[in-house]
């Protein structure tokens, strides 16, 4: 090899190494037509949570890829008083806020920003999650210390999610929010590994790496979040390499198809969303316990899961999924004699005892979304075997949410994720949450009241073992009255180019997408 | 001028109908915006902030006053100015629509002429069959077929997105397949209309007279018959141009392009009343403008047509 050739190769390698150092732009496509809000205190849909996750931080964060552990984020440490009422967080020094109009170099995040952000999270006019932050006083102890005083002590399992990188726990820099005002929902400014660069309506949001990110320079130069509601278009773009990660279809058939495509990988991960059939105990004939038991015995959740797919759906036997503290396993439910394993003869006998020997007819609305509609249609077929004719009216998703909150349906199929056992039980089964008539009408579609005492008692129980026992007992109470029939946990499905490396093992994430962080590369 | 003034009551009627209809449909924009995890207080606060608790007449008047000032309002969901959103996507929609119409005219008119002058011959059978296929095939399906053939197998064009206008080559590459999708469908409309219209004109007395006087067949068709036959074709092109702006939504979705159609569907699904009203008024204005241009173009095609 001549000297000139050698020099050429060396220069080429140097240029290539520089290119690697500069990183590449990762493109990720979601099943969405457009964004809704990139203000983290309003972001609720998957595509918005993804952008928010890359742009903002919490005081603590769920360990990337594993929602069962917390680790420091903006706070480098924290401590709690002996009575459990006062939590003090020590912030990292030198955390830089992204540049924004009026501050081209950003500024250093301090306790004032945290106080502002948590106050905003508690304000119903400026946050969708205000209900989570009542009974909490937030103040700056010094420039880098934040003190949070609770009216009633909460265990760490219920308190830390409020200040973690989820919903109201994302910290919004005060000056950036003031500078952007109404534009913040489409121009977010935070402290995360990537900062906002551009938004093209109905097409994409462009993020570039935050050069001063406190965990170090992100490996990717940027991230583009694309809005592509057609799954065929997403898969085509992934196949041609125009997109690196796509939101998939949460069905076994789709997973199997993509697994066969060379150079692509499929990620099926938790925590997933619970799929539960809520039985409205105020509507005849569902108001009869015998009828609700008959419905439970008529349904085989395994049959529904088989239709959805074993890779993407796991059995759910209690109101709280088993991977959350206080969740019930199917074995525990079976041991309590409340599994309601399918028994059509018993179901018919119960119906006859309730005065419906030939069954009855009921009507219910369901959204057009496949993850709701398909299992509901499966249940319709199963109920027909014992003479229950379920007439289904398919409506658009927005109408469905309005109608079920107006207490129209005798049966409500609902898909949800909540961050704790308390949130699941309170929002779906506490009397205050009863739709229309509750003190704080929410998503208690069954009108159950029987577990109120246990739910409230468990909320402020500081001993984790006792708290878990109370949550489990509350769920058994609900199963006894058949307030709902838990079906399964539907996991999240994404597909990616095999070249994408998340930088951590992906088991579960509350960001609801495979988190892209400073360690992600392609 | 009178025709321009007529646009005002037309647009007012469009706004009034849309204003009432979107509020009759079930669904709450506050719930749609906040998601199901939001607290009831937050939903109520957002409804208040959105102005949805105000009397209907106040909502109607406030929006109308905004329109008179040239302000389309802000999206209930994102809070972004609707005018900015329209400005961001409208060039892409217009580009796609005009490209589709252009392809339709350039392919459809010659095909229509060919099938008319060679009536009941092989070119006619082929042209009519292809036209029928073009009319029958849904845009989204045709788009997927084109993606499979030209983007995934041959790798000639990108699958998704709309190239920036600052990069004309990339912009055209991104435009090619979506424009072809709309263009093929448009070609079917135009060719059938051209054929039918030309056949009617070719039966007219003056055509027979021309032939009897020894005028050549080419001159009969292209100089005498075609201009008269094009009037209904121009009408179809005008109507279809307006329709395509709204109808291109499936093409925009399949090719992941930004566009007015996608914005409208999104606003409808989210019950974003303000955005939907604004977008439909814009769309209405576009339809009025296209109809006006179509009417005026009759004068160029047929000198007998004059407007005061």
Molecular structure report:
- The complex is a heterodimer of chains A (522) and B (308).
- Chain A has helices spanning 3-22, 46-55, 111-121, 156-159, 174-180, 231-239, 252-259, 289-298, 301-308, 330-335, 344-353, 370-384, 397-405, 421-429, 452-459, 464-480; strands spanning 25-30, 60-62, 70-72, 75-80, 86-91, 136-142, 145-150, 194-200, 204-209, 222-227, 245-247, 264-279, 313-315, 360-367, 388-395, 411-416, 484-497.
- Chain A is α+β, with helices and mostly antiparallel strands.
- In chain A, strands 1, 8, 9, 10, 11, 12, 13, 16 and 17 form a 9-stranded mixed β-sheet that branches. A 4-stranded antiparallel β-sheet of chain A has the order 4-5-7-6, covered by helices on one side. In chain A, strands 2-3 form a two-stranded antiparallel sheet.
- In chain A, strand 2 (60-62) and strand 3 (70-72) form a beta hairpin.
- In chain A, helix 15 (452-459) runs antiparallel to helix 16 (464-480).
- Chain A is globular and about 75 Å long.
- The two termini of chain A are 33 Å apart.
- The model of chain A is unreliable at 1-21 (pLDDT under 50).
- By secondary structure, chain B is mainly alpha-helical.
- Chain B is built from 13 helices and no strands.
- In chain B, helix 5 crosses helix 8.
- Chain B is globular and about 85 Å long.
- The mean pLDDT of chain B is 85.
- Classes of the chains: A alpha+beta (522), B mainly alpha (308).
- At the A-B interface, helix 6 and helix 13 of A face helix 2, helix 3, helix 5, helix 7 and helix 11 of B.
């Amino acid at each position: 090899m001549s000297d000139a050739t050698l020099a050429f190769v060396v220069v080429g390698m140097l240029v290539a190494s520089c290119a690697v150092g500069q990183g590449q732009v990762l493109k990720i496509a979601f099943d969405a037509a457009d964004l809704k809000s990139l203000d983290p205190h309003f972001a609720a849909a998957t595509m918005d949570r993804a952008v928010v996750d890359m742009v903002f931080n919490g005081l603590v964060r769920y360990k990337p890829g594993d929602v069962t552990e917390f680790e420091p984020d903006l706070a480098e440490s924290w401590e709690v008083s002996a009575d459990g009422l006062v939590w003090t967080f020590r912030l990292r020094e030198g955390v830089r806020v992204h540049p924004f109009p009026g501050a081209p170099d950003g500024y250093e995040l301090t306790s004032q920003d945290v106080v502002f952000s948590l106050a905003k999270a508690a304000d119903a006019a400026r946050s969708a999650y205000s209900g989570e932050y009542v009974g909490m006083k937030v103040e700056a102890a010094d420039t880098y210390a934040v003190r949070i005083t609770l009216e009633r002590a909460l265990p760490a399992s219920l308190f830390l999610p409020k200040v973690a990188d989820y919903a109201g726990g994302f910290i919004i820099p005060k000056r950036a929010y003031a500078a952007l005002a109404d534009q913040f929902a489409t121009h977010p400014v935070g402290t995360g590994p990537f900062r906002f660069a551009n938004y093209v309506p109905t097409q994409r949001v462009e993020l570039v790496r935050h050069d001063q990110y406190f965990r170090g320079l992100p490996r990717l130069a940027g991230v583009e979040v694309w809005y592509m509601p057609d799954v065929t278009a997403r898969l085509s773009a992934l196949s041609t390499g125009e997109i690196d990660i796509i939101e998939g279809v949460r069905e076994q058939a789709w997973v199997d198809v993509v697994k066969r495509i060379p150079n692509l990988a499929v990620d099926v991960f938790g925590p997933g969303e619970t799929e539960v059939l809520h039985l409205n105990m105020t509507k005849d004939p569902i108001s009869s316990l015998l009828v609700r038991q008959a419905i439970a015995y008529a349904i085989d959740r395994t049959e529904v899961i088989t239709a959805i797919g074993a890779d993407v759906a796991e059995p759910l036997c209690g109101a709280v999924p088993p991977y959350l503290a206080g969740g019930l396993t199917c074995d525990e439910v079976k041991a309590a004699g409340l599994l309601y394993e399918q028994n059509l003869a018993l179901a018919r006998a119960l119906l006859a005892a309730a005065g419906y020997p030939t069954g009855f007819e009921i009507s219910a609305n369901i959204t057009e979304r496949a993850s709701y509609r398909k299992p509901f249609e499966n249940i319709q077929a199963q109920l027909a075997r014992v003479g229950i004719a379920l007439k289904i009216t398919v409506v658009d998703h927005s109408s469905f949410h309005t109608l079920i909150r107006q207490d129209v349906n005798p049966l409500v199929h609902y898909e949800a994720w909540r961050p704790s056992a308390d949130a699941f039980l309170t929002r779906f089964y506490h009397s205050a949450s009863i739709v229309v008539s509750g003190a704080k009408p929410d998503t208690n579609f069954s009108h159950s009241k029987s577990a109120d005492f246990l739910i409230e008692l468990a909320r402020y129980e500081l001993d984790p073992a006792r708290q878990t026992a109370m949550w489990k007992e509350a769920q058994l109470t609900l199963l006894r009255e058949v307030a709902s029939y838990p079906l399964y946990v539907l996991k999240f499905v994404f597909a990616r180019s095999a070249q994408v490396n998340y930088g951590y093992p992906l088991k579960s994430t509350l960001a609801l997408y495979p988190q892209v962080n400073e360690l992600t590369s392609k | 001028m009178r025709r321009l003034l007529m646009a005002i009551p037309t647009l007012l009627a469009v706004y009034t109908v849309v204003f009432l209809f979107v509020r009759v449909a079930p669904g709450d924009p506050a719930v749609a915006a906040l998601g199901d995890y939001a607290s009831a207080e937050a939903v109520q606060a957002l409804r208040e902030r959105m102005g949805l608790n105000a009397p209907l007449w106040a909502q109607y008047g406030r929006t109308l006053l905004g329109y008179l000032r040239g302000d389309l309002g802000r999206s209930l969901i994102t809070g972004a100015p609707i005018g900015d959103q329209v400005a961001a996507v409208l060039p892409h929609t217009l580009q796609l629509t005009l490209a589709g119409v252009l392809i339709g005219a350039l392919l459809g008119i010659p095909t229509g002429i060919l099938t008319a002058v060679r009536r009941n011959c092989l070119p006619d059978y082929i042209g009519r069959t292809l036209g029928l296929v073009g009319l029958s095939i849904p845009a989204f399906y045709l788009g997927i077929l084109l993606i499979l053939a030209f983007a995934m197998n041959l790798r000639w064009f990108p699958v998704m997105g709309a190239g920036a206008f600052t990069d004309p080559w990339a912009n055209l590459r991104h435009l090619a397949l979506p424009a072809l999708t709309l263009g093929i469908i448009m070609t079917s409309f135009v060719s059938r209309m051209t054929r039918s219209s030309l056949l009617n004109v070719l039966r007219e007395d003056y055509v027979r007279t021309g032939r009897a006087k020894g005028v050549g067949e080419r001159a009969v068709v292209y100089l005498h018959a075609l201009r008269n036959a094009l009037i209904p074709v121009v009408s179809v092109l005008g109507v279809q141009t307006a329709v395509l702006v709204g109808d291109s939504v499936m093409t925009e979705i399949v090719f992941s392009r930004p566009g007015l159609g996608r914005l409208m569907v999104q606003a409808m699904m989210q019950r974003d009343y303000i955005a939907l009203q604004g977008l439909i008024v814009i769309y209405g204005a576009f339809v009025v403008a296209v109809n006006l241009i179509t009417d005026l173009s009759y004068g160029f095609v047929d000198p007998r047509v004059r407007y005061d």
